[in-house]
């Protein structure tokens, strides 16, 4: 369950509760407020006041939301997208994604964005991990940064096979991680090993509260819709394109030189390898 919260607006006690719940969601249905209070080292009254922060009247209602969301199937998420589709006005339906763009812009930290651009422009090799629907974002990042003449590799294998690629990552490298919905075992390994090996991590996520946020060197938030909704890639793509332009600006001379060389190659061999329309 994606807790739609901004951590800096919560009290210290409520931050503890939000963090605990994000890490132990599967245990919440079996807990009472006293259990949560003990685990978070806060008072029971602090726990009781927390539920209104996540749009619930009490723990019972929160548990029901958790249960309902965990039972949602992909088809139900697709139905949520269909329900938002305006059959008579495709343009209006297209603008549904504008809300995700606004949410992403509202949460965007200029400092974090600048740090992310610097991480990438200074990287020895940029590794990219984007599982599931994030494969499209990994492919776009690979395509754009390679054009700048950067060394880019994709970590496209999960499970124990991830180790075969991870062993080659060096301290001067950066791993871009697209971590949506929850922290997978692979994401946990990538973030943890960075502290051991010394490489930097850039996390792009739709989670406002998660243990991953503290593990990554830089985190960028992007809205994709609630957990029960069909997740949109409109805002992640826009955020990514904006970041890539910022990276290109920082390495302007190299980026321009690469583009000029690409143009010359196309011109020289256009009859052999014509550009496909």
In summary, what is this structure?
The protein contains 14 helices and five strands.
The average pLDDT is 82
Q: Count the helices. How many?
A: 14
* Beta-strand segment tally: 5
Ends apart, CA distance between termini: 43 Å
Radius of gyration: 21 Å
Structural class: alpha/beta
Contiguous uncertain segments of 5+ residues: none
DSSP strand (E) fraction?
A: 5-15%
Strand order of the largest sheet: 2-1-3-4-5
Largest sheet: 5 strands, parallel
CATH superfamily of the largest domain: Glucose-6-phosphate isomerase like protein, domain 1
Which oligomeric state applies?
single chain
What's the helix-strand series? Answer: HHHHHHHHEHEHEHEHEHH
Integer count of domains: 2
**Architecture (CATH level 2) name of the largest domain:** 3-Layer(aba) Sandwich
Would you give an account of this structure?
This protein has 277 residues and is of the alpha/beta class. The chain folds into 2 domains: 7-70, Orthogonal Bundle (Arc Repressor Mutant, subunit A), CATH 1.10.10; 98-267, Glucose-6-phosphate isomerase like protein, domain 1 (Rossmann fold, 3-Layer(aba) Sandwich), CATH 3.40.50. The chain has helices at residues 12-23, 33-40, 44-50, 59-70, 74-84, 90-94, 96-107, 110-122, 135-147, 162-166, 185-197, 212-215, 234-250, 252-268; strands at residues 125-129, 151-154, 174-179, 200-205, 218-221. Strands 2-1-3-4-5 form a 5-stranded parallel β-sheet, sandwiched between helices. The longest helix is centred in the last third of the chain and has 17 residues, at 234-250. It is elongated, with a radius of gyration of 21 Å.
């Amino acid at each position: 369950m994606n807790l739609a919260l901004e951590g800096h607006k919560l009290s210290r006690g409520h931050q503890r509760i939000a963090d605990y719940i994000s890490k132990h969601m599967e245990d919440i249905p079996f807990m009472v407020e006293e259990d949560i209070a003990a685990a978070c080292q806060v008072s029971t009254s602090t726990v009781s006041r927390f539920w209104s922060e996540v749009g619930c009247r009490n723990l019972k209602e929160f548990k029901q939301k958790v249960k309902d969301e965990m039972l949602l199937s992909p088809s139900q998420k697709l139905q949520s997208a269909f329900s938002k589709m305006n059959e008579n006005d495709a343009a209006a339906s297209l603008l549904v994604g504008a809300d995700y763009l606004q949410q992403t812009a509202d949460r965007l930290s200029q400092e974090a964005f600048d740090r992310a651009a610097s991480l990438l422009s200074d990287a020895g090799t940029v590794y990219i991990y984007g599982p599931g629907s994030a494969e499209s974002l990994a492919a776009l990042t690979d395509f754009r940064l390679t054009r700048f003449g950067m060394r880019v590799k994709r970590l496209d294998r999960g499970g124990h096979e991830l180790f075969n690629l991870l062993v080659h990552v060096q301290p001067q490298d950066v791993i871009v991680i697209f971590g949506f919905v929850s922290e997978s075992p692979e994401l946990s390994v990538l973030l943890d090993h960075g502290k051991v090996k010394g490489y930097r991590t850039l996390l792009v996520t739709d989670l406002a509260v998660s243990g991953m946020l503290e593990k990554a060197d830089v985190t960028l938030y992007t809205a994709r819709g609630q957990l029960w909704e069909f997740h949109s890639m409109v805002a992640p793509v826009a955020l990514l394109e904006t970041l890539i332009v910022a990276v290109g600006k920082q390495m302007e001379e190299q980026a321009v030189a690469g583009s000029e060389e690409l143009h010359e190659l196309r011109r020289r061999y256009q009859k052999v390898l014509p550009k496909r329309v």
